[in-house]
Amino acid sequence: MKKYILIFFVIISFVVTSCYNDKKETLFPSLVACDSTQYLFKTYILPMINSNCNGCHNNQAPILNSYVNIEINASSMYNDIVSGKMPQGGTPLDDCSKKMFKKWMDHGMPNN
Ligand code: HEC
């Protein structure tokens, strides 16, 4: 009987751990390669923010998961990206992503 209980727990722990998956590529599959000549919000900026920021800012203020929220917070986002304060505790964004975000801001932050 003890043996069956043990086997039962082993199987359950496999089932539980195999369901656990928080890879950002899986959560936010729309990530595309950065292109600093581009400033298309939907194609480049939002996926970049989703991938780098929304592991936290989907439910951590400031919420950064939509055009309106990102537009309102853009300048403090940019400052934090450049200073390396954000992503908090993570690898700073690459130059291409910084340039792309700046370009989008310089073009009047279109929802394109
Ligand atoms: C690991 C979690 C985490 C990630 C990833 C993260 N943030 Fe944050 N962010 C926080 C927390 C927690 C706060 C609030 C506390 C603070 O200000 O340090 C915060 C605050 C902020 C603020 C408001 C306060 C300030 O410093 O102006 C901005 C803007 C911000 N984050 C932008 C970003 C951007 C842009 C990214 C992606 C490049 C990002 N964050 C990624 C956790 C995170």
Describe this entry's structure for a reader.
It is a single chain. α3 (41-52) packs across α6 (95-106) and α5 (67-83) crosses α6. The mean pLDDT is 85. The chain has one domain (25-106). It is 60% helix and 0% strand. The chain contains six helices and no strands. By secondary structure, it is an all-alpha fold. It binds heme C. The site of heme C (HEC) has 19 residues, from α4 and α5.
Question: Key terms for this structure?
Answer:
112 residues, mainly alpha, elongated
Structural class: mainly alpha
What is the H/E order?
HHHHHH
Overall 3D form? elongated
Major sheet: none
User: Beta-strand level of the residues, as a percent range?
Assistant: under 5%
Number of strands: 0
Bound ions, cofactors and other small molecules, one mention each? heme C
Would you identify the regions where 5 or more consecutive residues have pLDDT less than 50?
none
- How much helicity do the residues have? 55-70%
Distance between the termini: 63 Å
Q: What does the radius of gyration come to?
A: 19 Å
Total of domains: 1
Provide a concise account of the structure shown.
With 112 residues, the chain is mostly helical. Helix content is 60%, strand content 0%.
How is the topology of this model organized?
Layout: H1 2-19, H2 24-27, H3 41-52, H4 54-57, H5 67-83, H6 95-106
Helix pairs in contact: 3-6, 5-6
Residues 52-53, 55-57, 60, 62, 73, 76-77, 80-81, 85-90, 93 line the site of heme C.
